[in-house]
Amino acid sequence: MSIGEAMQSSVLDQLDEMQQSIGEGQSITQELSDPRNTMTHQQRVKMFARLENLRRDLEEALKLCKSQTEKLGGELLEDMAESGTTSINADGLNIHQKKIFYVSKRADKDGATNEAVCEALKSSGMDFLVKNADSYSAASLKAHIKELMNEGKEVPSQVAGLLNIGEKVTLTSTKRG
């Protein structure tokens, strides 16, 4: 049994145990949301502790799930690149590649201070992106650079030298309806 299967089994066991303690005909959520809730103080304490333990287990399972999907996602992207595939259907999901365009300022230690970026923007005729001496709109800068690139125009070198500009491919999924 894998770690993920063991965690899932543990979570399901906890849910079953809580349901049995509430009794037949009433769900956990009904019991907790019913204003006429008939739980005693001790039952509420016990239910709180069980729910808190369940929440912690679920958070740990989610961390593991995220870690595993990130690892597998990288491997799957390589597989898809080799096979020329951009989309796969599996288990009710459409798993597909998504391109993300990014623009970010390089590190200050590389000379890419906010002031330097603002100066480069001004000297390149992009002063409309500058808010004040050391502040600019990062979202507007990204949109403008993307627009320049889509039009086949070059990003001025004094601006480009202070920025990380690129595109990365990630995996995302949507439920098939």
What's the short version?
Residues 44-71 form a coiled coil. This protein is α+β, with helices and mostly antiparallel strands and 177 residues long.
Q: What is the 3D form? A: elongated
Described by its quaternary structure, the protein is single chain
Question: How many helices?
Answer: 6
Give a count of the beta strands, DSSP E runs of length 2 or more.
Answer: 5
SSE pattern: HHHEEHEEHHE
Strand line-up of the largest beta sheet: 1-2-5
Q: Which structural category fits the helices and strands?
A: alpha+beta
Estimate the helix proportion, in percent. Answer: 40-55%
Strand content: 15-25%
Estimate the mean pLDDT confidence: 86
Q: Provide the low-confidence segments as ranges.
A: none
Number of domains: 2
Separation of termini?
A: 31 Å
State the major sheet.
3 strands, antiparallel
Radius of gyration: 26 Å
Mind explaining what this structure looks like?
Residues 44-71 form a coiled coil. Keywords: Coiled coil. Pfam families: DUF7307. This protein is an alpha+beta fold and 177 residues long. It is built from six helices and five strands. A hairpin with a 2-residue loop joins strand 1 and strand 2 (93-105). The strands form two sheets. A three-stranded antiparallel beta sheet has the order 1-2-5. 54% of the residues lie in helices and 20% in strands. The longest helix is centred in the middle third of the chain and has 43 residues, at 41-83. It has helices spanning 3-22, 28-33, 41-83, 114-123, 138-150, 157-160, and strands spanning 87-90, 93-105, 130-132, 135-136, 163-175. The chain has two domains: 3-83, no CATH class; 93-175, no CATH class. The protein is elongated, with a radius of gyration of 26 Å. Helix 1 (3-22) runs antiparallel to helix 3 (41-83).
